[in-house]
């Protein structure tokens, strides 16, 4: 027996794997990343750069560039996300107005921009100007009458159907991943799951274009959720330009967390709310430096959007408001009632929407996505047009509902009966009796509320970009405005009641209905998404008033309590479970008294665990094992008899290593011995070259004993982001627990179908 190393000199030994080769460390589609390994690789890379930086000035400059690359990526993400958001806002504004008419002086102007440039616009008729013509005026020279109304009605529906059809066709043909809100998938990707193409360039382009089309079509959906997806696509694109992020999936997810913050920053004009949203709602791993970088990305994105000024009001959002009246302690009662309404609406929406989406998945309905979008768009347009509160864009509706009634307001909601002798500052108008316009607006709002509640259930989840923030806020704002007007009129007509006597005297400005709309919007959004801290911060950044934090907090907490009483899942978690994504939610509690041995594979009666031995298998044996199984990796043991654990080898890296060895090294054949030890085994003379694969072996796989409680195992998987965990007893391998096994077990313990976890 001779040492194989002496056959052709130790230099020729098959140890080329000491040099890294392409694709090692990468992952296949629909697989989970190994957070510990990614962290370890980044630490090694950083250590290498630090030691090299002391060798020369050039290496020192390279180390500085590496340190600054994170901030450069954040700057680029903020600039692109802010620019895209501004372009989307401008395009939506124009295309929404295109359904009703066109500007003759410049067809690319929206209604508002068209009348800004006119010299013939009066303050009372600021929505009317000769340059802006409705379709009936342009085509049949009539602005009033039944024929003009019917023609405008017909063209409104046709434009809506045209926009929706174009959007669903683009998504279906070019980027199927551009549909939905994107937040459930972003949460899953940030938890370590790989969905190739979900954040790709085509998805970014198609989602941006189709988002404009679907929002302009008048469907009951918003652009805020999809803007998070768009920002994360920007983050993915820029991180691929820097090897620090492109070659490390863990580091890439830090960039995506910051990109999500930038997305919310431009969606709501709320940079701080965006950072908190990323931390509270979407991120799985959020170290302190990611917090700073998220803040910077959100700041740059907000600054870019502010520079574009899409709404022409020097604000970041369409519905920026300022109130001039303080709130009073007695008003906490209706605020809390709005919180209860928000929680109940959230529960109703989640259950009905998930039931409908499940039906779409399991019946023939799912085979006709284009037809479904066309039908829902037609129904929406036909019902929405007659009601002025559903005809306009949802953002404009929320803006009107949030508004305080000043002396210059012309809205129906501000049609109060004025006292002829009133002489007060413009901002301090006392409570007044409601006029006929307010009562008309109330029943129109009531009809709009019922319509929005029903149609949003069927709209969210179709094969088009669809956000949920704006429809949820609209439902809450409508309910809140009606409650606010009710409380206001009650206070005016019954100011001598004990509840009003102390704070609402005759002639005082006591109740602000717009504030109730804002609180209702926060309550409904909280009920659907279960956000709390970030929601309150977003809402007060929207309104610019710190004074109203307590009402917002009261409503947000109440809506979460009420909704949690019926089920702990928010809409995004519910869609994650519906799609079967392997997402271990940090908020879920596992309290069952099972052990690792109850969950590990193999179970009693199952085939023994597929393993590799450290120095007794040939290349052909390894290839056969890979071909006959579909496992992501294999434990490496000393021998099949002892079952003493050595380490763990990933399937993908074994395939790549053997393929590269056959291409780059003479003498590696099917009966070459594969060994994972430091020194080659003793082989007979004239044996083929052995293949050393120690470099791809993970020598410190995470292990637990067979009596470890599953509560601890679940915690380990959550906090360390493991792909798999090996089960041993006294160093002897017994089995393996994968993330999928943990999710199946948790589903089983919750009396759910364990096979609903579809992906590896």
Please give a structural write-up:
The structure is a single chain. With about 750 residues, this protein is of the alpha/beta class. About 55% of the residues lie in helices and about 5% in strands. The chain has 28 helices and 14 strands. A hairpin with a 2-residue loop joins strand 13 and strand 14. GO terms for molecular function: antiporter activity; ATP binding; voltage-gated chloride channel activity.
How much helix, percentage-wise, in residues?
Answer: 40-55%
Rg of Cα set: 31 Å
| Biggest pleated sheet | 4 strands, mixed
Order of strands across the main sheet = 4-6-7-11
Q: What multimeric state do the chains show?
A: single chain
Task: Please tally the β strands and state the result.
Answer: 14
Structural class label:
alpha/beta
CATH superfamily of the domain at 335-404 and 411-418 and 429-579: Clc chloride channel
CATH class of the domain at 335-404 and 411-418 and 429-579: Mainly Alpha
Indicate the CATH architecture of the domain at 335-404 and 411-418 and 429-579.
Orthogonal Bundle
- Beta fraction: 5-15%
The tally of helices reads 28
Q: Termini distance?
A: 45 Å
Mean residue pLDDT: 86
Instruction: Tell me, briefly, the overall form.
Output: elongated
Q: What is the fold named in CATH at topology level of the domain at 335-404 and 411-418 and 429-579?
A: Clc chloride channel
Family: Belongs to the chloride channel (TC 2.A.49) family.
Membrane topology: Multi-pass membrane protein
Pfam family, one: Voltage_CLC
Keywords: Antiport, ATP-binding, CBS domain, Chloride, Endosome, Ion transport, Membrane, Nucleotide-binding, Repeat, Transmembrane, Transmembrane helix, Transport
């Amino acid at each position: 027996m001779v040492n194989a190393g002496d056959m052709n000199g130790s230099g020729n030994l098959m140890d080329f794997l000491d040099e890294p080769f392409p694709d090692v460390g990468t992952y296949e589609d629909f697989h989970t990343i190994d957070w510990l390994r990614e962290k370890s690789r980044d630490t090694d890379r950083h250590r290498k750069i630090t030691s090299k930086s002391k060798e020369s000035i050039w290496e020192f400059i390279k180390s500085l560039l590496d340190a600054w690359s994170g901030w450069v990526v954040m700057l680029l993400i903020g600039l692109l996300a802010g620019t895209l958001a501004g372009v989307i806002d401008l395009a939506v504004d124009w295309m929404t107005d295109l359904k009703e008419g066109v500007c003759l002086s410049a067809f690319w102007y929206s209604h508002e921009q068209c009348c800004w440039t006119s010299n013939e616009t009066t303050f009372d008729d600021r929505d009317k100007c000769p340059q802006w013509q409705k379709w009936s005026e342009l085509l049949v020279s009539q602005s009033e009458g039944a024929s003009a109304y019917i023609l405008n009605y017909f063209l409104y529906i046709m434009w809506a159907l045209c926009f929706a059809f174009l959007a669903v066709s683009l998504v279906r043909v070019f980027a199927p991943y551009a549909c939905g809100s994107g937040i459930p998938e972003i949460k899953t990707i940030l938890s370590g799951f790989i969905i190739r193409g979900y954040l790709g360039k085509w998805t970014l382009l198609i989602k941006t274009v189709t988002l404009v089309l679907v929002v302009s079509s008048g469907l009951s959906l918003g652009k805020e959720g999809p803007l998070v997806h768009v920002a994360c696509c920007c983050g993915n694109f820029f991180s691929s330009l820097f090897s620090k992020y492109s070659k490390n999936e863990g580091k890439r997810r830090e960039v995506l967390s910051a990109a999500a913050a930038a997305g919310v920053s431009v969606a709501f004009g709320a940079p701080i709310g965006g950072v908190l949203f990323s931390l509270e709602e979407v991120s799985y791993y959020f170290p302190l430096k990611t917090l700073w970088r998220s803040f910077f990305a959100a700041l740059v994105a907000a600054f870019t959007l502010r520079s574009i000024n899409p709404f022409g009001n020097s604000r970041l959002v369409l519905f920026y408001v300022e109130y001039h009246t303080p709130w009073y302690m007695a008003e906490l009662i209706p605020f809390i009632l709005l919180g209860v309404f928000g929680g109940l609406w959230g529960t109703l929406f989640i259950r009905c929407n998930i039931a409908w989406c499940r039906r779409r998945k399991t019946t023939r309905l799912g085979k006709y996505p284009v037809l479904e979008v066309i039908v829902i768009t037609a129904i929406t347009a036909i019902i929405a047009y007659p009601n002025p509160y559903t005809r306009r864009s949802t953002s404009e509706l929320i803006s009107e509902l949030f508004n305080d009634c000043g002396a210059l307001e012309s809205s129906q909601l501000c049609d109060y009966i004025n006292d002829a002798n009133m002489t007060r500052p413009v901002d301090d108008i006392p409570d007044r009796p409601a006029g006929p316009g307010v009562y008309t607006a109330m029943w129109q709002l009531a009809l709009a509320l019922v319509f929005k509640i029903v149609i949003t259930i069927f709209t969210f989840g179709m094969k088009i970009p669809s956000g949920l923030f704006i429809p949820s806020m609209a439902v809450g704002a409508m309910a809140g405005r009606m409650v606010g007007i009710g409380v206001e009129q009650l206070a005016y007509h019954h100011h001598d009641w004990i509840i009003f006597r102390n704070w609402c005297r005759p002639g005082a400005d006591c109740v602000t209905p717009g504030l109730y709309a804002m609180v209702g919007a926060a309550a409904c959004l909280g009920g659907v998404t279960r956000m709390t801290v970030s929601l309150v911060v977003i809402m007060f950044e929207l309104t610019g008033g710190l004074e109203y934090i307590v009402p917002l907090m009261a409503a947000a907490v109440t809506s979460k309590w009420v909704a949690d009483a019926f089920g702990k899942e928010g809409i995004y978690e519910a869609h994650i479970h519906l799609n079967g994504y392997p997402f271990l939610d940090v908020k879920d509690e596992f309290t069952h008294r099972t052990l690792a041995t109850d969950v590990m594979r193999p179970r009693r009666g199952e085939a023994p665990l597929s393993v590799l031995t450290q120095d007794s298998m040939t290349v052909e044996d390894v290839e056969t094992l890979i071909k006959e199984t579909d496992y992501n990796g294999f434990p490496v043991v000393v021998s099949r008899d002892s079952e003493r654990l050595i380490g763990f080898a990933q399937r993908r890296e074994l395939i790549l290593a053997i393929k590269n060895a056959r291409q780059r090294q003479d003498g590696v054949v099917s009966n070459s011995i594969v060994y994972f030890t430091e020194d080659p085994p003793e082989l007979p003379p004239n044996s083929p070259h052995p293949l050393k694969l120690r470099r791809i072996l993970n020598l410190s796989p995470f292990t637990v004993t067979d009596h470890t409680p599953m509560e601890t195992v679940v915690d380990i998987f959550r906090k360390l982001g493991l792909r798999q965990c090996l089960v041993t007893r006294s160093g002897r391998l017994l089995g393996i627990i994968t993330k999928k096994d943990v999710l199946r077990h948790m589903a089983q313990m919750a009396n759910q179908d364990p096979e609903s976890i579809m992906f590896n």
